[in-house]
Amino acid sequence: MNDRPSFVYVTYIEGTPQKIWHALTDAELTAAYWGHSNVSDWQVGSSWQHQRTDGSGIADVVGLVVESDPPRRLVTTWALPGEEPAGGPSKVTFGIEPYGAIVRLTVTHENLADEAERETAAGGWAAVLSNLKSLVETGSPLPEEPWRMPLG
């Protein structure tokens, strides 16, 4: 059994599974609410990159697509470029469940290195998914980048 930390975040978004899937996998949309473009063809076994939007093409996070079941489930590995974490890369699962006019989006980030990385992930996911929710529901991300807000 893996005893490494994990983090689960659940949010409810007015929209369709297709809209949520598109927002998670379209490079232009991810740039709008995440500050990075998620770039891949989203096929199982393909690589993906979390690229800066400054035109540099620098990827701050990379991984592989482990599972791709549009518009229900997307699973990727998650690591820093060129890094081989001792316990292997972490894994992020996006579960998309429709319920009438809303969607429950569950993000599970597993195999985190330690509690400090879990806390960092928790803050990051809360900010990014709040911005995603705003974009899908209103057509615009939040007026300020939520991950820049000071803690406490």
From TrEMBL:
Entries under CDD domains matching the protein: SRPBCC_CalC_Aha1-like_GntR-HTH (cd08893)
Source organism (scientific name): Streptomyces olivaceiscleroticus
Activator of Hsp90 ATPase homologue 1/2-like C-terminal domain boundaries: 16-137
Descriptive protein name: Activator of Hsp90 ATPase homologue 1/2-like C-terminal domain-containing protein
Protein family per UniProt: Belongs to the AHA1 family.
Gene3D superfamilies in alphabetical order: 3.30.530.20
InterPro entries in alphabetical order: ASHA1/2-like_C, START-like_dom_sf
UniProt cross-references to Pfam families, sorted A to Z: AHSA1
Highest taxon in the source lineage: Bacteria
